[in-house]
Amino acid sequence: MNQTPLHQDHLNLNAKMVDFGGWHMPVQYTSIIDEHLNTRKNIGLFDVSHMGEIEIHGPDALKFVQKIVTQDVSKSQPGHQAQYSVMCTPTGGIVDDILIYKLTEDHFLLCVNASNIEKDFAWILENKKNENVKIENTSSAYVQIAVQGPKAKDLISKLTPFDLSKIQTYRYVQEKLLDIPMIISRTGYTGEDGFELYLPADKGHVVWQTLLERGKTDGITPCGLGARDTLRLEACFPLYGHEIDEKTTPLEAGLNWVVKLDKENFIGKEALLQQKEMGLTKKLIAFELLEKGIPRQGYPLRSSQNELIGTVTSGTLSPVFMKGIGLGVVKLGGECHPRECECHPRESGDLLTVEIRNRYIKAKVVKPPFYRKKKERI
Amino acid sequence: MKYPDDLRYTKDHEWARNENGIVTVGITDFAQDQLGDIVYIELPNVGDPVQKGHAFGVVESVKAVSDLYSPISGEVVKINQTLKDSPEMLNQDPYDAGWMIHVKMNENETLNDLMDASMYQKFCEES
User: Fold this and answer.
1) Which residues of A touch B55 (CB under 8 A)?
2) Which one of 3.40.50.2020, 3.20.10.10, 2.40.50.100, 3.30.420.40 gives the CATH number of domain B8-126?
3) Are B58 and A296 an interchain contact pair (Cβ–Cβ within 8 Å)?
4) Per-residue pLDDT reduced to its tens digit, A54-66
């Protein structure tokens, strides 16, 4: 099984380890709920080194990245934006959701999902054709650490001379932290303010340890994949293999904002244009349970008239709200136009039921996200 | 990890204590530790039959759903009502406040084929 460079640190912390897509990863150190709530209140520290990095450089890099992603990366300045995007198949299905870092005009770093590293790398190579670019899977060169929560900025600012107020959300810099050059990205997967650090693999241990030690006064706790999942779900971030996959288009997943249909040409554009024209036949909704119970992936969703209308893609008990919450995909009659939908279902407030072990539990469609952080801390 | 001497144990990590034909059933310290934060429980009703080795309820942690398997055949005569509102009891006190059901066991039933504390401890340490 794959191990991150911080594997021994997790064992030393007595983490409960699980197999996650071929990676031996901490699912929790103490309690998913405690780790979740502490990330909302103080700081959570996550080893996310299982995430992959694919780098594309060369004279045609910009042109090539423009071709394989749905976002427009032509306008951003190097060393500025961390752009969330998807890569699509020619039929518009999502190959992966990624973060794009334009390091220089001819050098891009894509952060991809752990379970998709090999697939993405093969996909990108396959589409290289005659472009003058070099494509490298540099995943093992990086440790990636996420520092998330309302006090994350206070901690990171103790360790770098760089003025963090210069990096807004979804922006990044290449600066030194603990004197180590790295990517400091104001991004995350928790719905909190926070940072994701991309640093040389051999520096992972010292950075992890220092963050834990220096973060003590701010109440830092290491957090496992369990809390990472419940946090992202409260924030309504999609997870590959749950809300998104090759059978789902970004329009169906409510990710219209990352699809730049006015961009010259990219893989999947024709299919997405056509889908936009024809209207959606399914889309993603967020719902909360009105009775006790916990929705789980695969549970049927029914209308209040008992008609089967869809399936739960992710569900959990929300540690913040202490009720069942979930995301699910529901059928549409074809009359639903993405322009009117965006990621917010018009049906917010509508009732439905979740079938849990042959019982019908009442639920209500809500406008995402379930959880929104209190205020911006720039 | 605790393995009280006066209990019998199943491979599915339930414990059982027989007091004059009434068997108290719960999940073990090992089970609650493996599950993590327990947030939901479904128990049978008083009067329901339960069958040895068959599911009698469901326990859910944040991460996962797990069936509960009965260590004995018989009839449910009492359930721990407080668990419905306080499932975290199962994490805090699995052998006492976290008991789940009382089963009046059928005639000729016995707990003798279940593991004793030392066998169960060995079983857990090897798993």
Assistant:
1) none
2) 2.40.50.100
3) no
4) 999 999 999 999 9
